[in-house]
């Protein structure tokens, strides 16, 4: 249940040599490769169910559904649907669970409460959590919406996307330069908050000052988007100065946030820069005053919509771009100040001198 574009190459010591595709899927493939050694690793499984297999069907991942599913033919007949996605979303679709001994039972409220506690524990450690489930089918229903019902829970996975060592210092530099960094992510709110604290986006002072520092996409939309899909600017202006983390958000939430900040009239007009790598980020990248697309993981659509492409996908590089941009801007201001001062003074002397002395006191060489 992964994209065939995702691939991992492992060296002789069992460590990742290089990988291509989605980071999350590559991490899962790395673990799967170790677990499926007897079956030829994950490539052996892919060989049994190739992309052009007529029995293979896929429901692609989307930011609205927050999950993806793949249905393949089973060896003994029938079909098997595999599903992975946001923990709380997939858990809500499960009615059965696989026990440690391999047996299947109906999932109980106690099971759900225990899994939800574990999801919270993973999230507090800054781990991105995924739930993996499956369902056996005799026939594939024509209505794809009914595929992901009555799933059997296999397990919960916690994935760490470590913060680069240079990012906290880069964010600290941004704060010193008057730049407010906000995180807009599809992750669980507790995961997003834990990562934001590691980066320095969230501080104890900010969290103590307002309960609007962290919001989910659903809460954000309910408060700032009217029934006619326009922004309630008065309500928006109460939220955005305090907002630092927008979790479980959709690309439309990012676009709403960018548009609302640009339209706000609180204090001075705001200049908004946005980073993105997916196709769905294109509207926000296009709308922003400055759009940064990722050069390594960004899609072609995102790169075409952006103003600047970050070749190493590093936030610290964006800080360097801001430094150079401000340096160029300051130099232009100094140049204009010098030119205007010199030229206005020369013109005034030339006009006054010509009026009094009947000829300009400055010759052509002096004026140049």
SSE blueprint:
Layout lengths: L6 E4 L5 E5 L2 H13 L5 H8 L8 E3 L7 E7 L5 E8 H6 L1 E5 L5 E3 L2 H16 L2 E11 L13 E10 L6 H10 L6 E2 L4 H11 L4 H6 L4 E3 H8 L8 H7 L5 E3 L3 H13 L9 E4 L5 H6 L2 E5 L5 H6 L2 E3 L4 H43 L6 H4 L1
Parallel strand pairs: 6-9, 10-12, 11-12, 13-14, 14-15
Antiparallel strand pairs: 1-2, 3-4, 4-5, 5-8, 6-7, 8-9
Report on the architecture of this protein.
With 368 residues, the protein is α/β, with parallel strands linked by helices. 43% of the residues lie in helices and 21% in strands. The chain has 14 helices and 15 strands. The chain has helices at 23-35, 41-48, 87-92, 109-124, 167-176, 189-199, 204-209, 217-224, 233-239, 251-263, 282-287, 300-305, 315-357, 364-367; strands at residues 7-10, 16-20, 57-59, 67-73, 79-86, 94-98, 104-106, 127-137, 151-160, 183-184, 214-216, 245-247, 273-276, 290-294, 308-310. The chain has a seven-stranded mixed sheet with strand order 3-4-5-8-9-6-7. Strands 10-12-11 form a three-stranded parallel sheet. A three-stranded parallel sheet has the order 13-14-15. Helix 4 packs parallel to helix 6 (189-199). It starts with 6 loop residues before the first strand and ends with a helix.
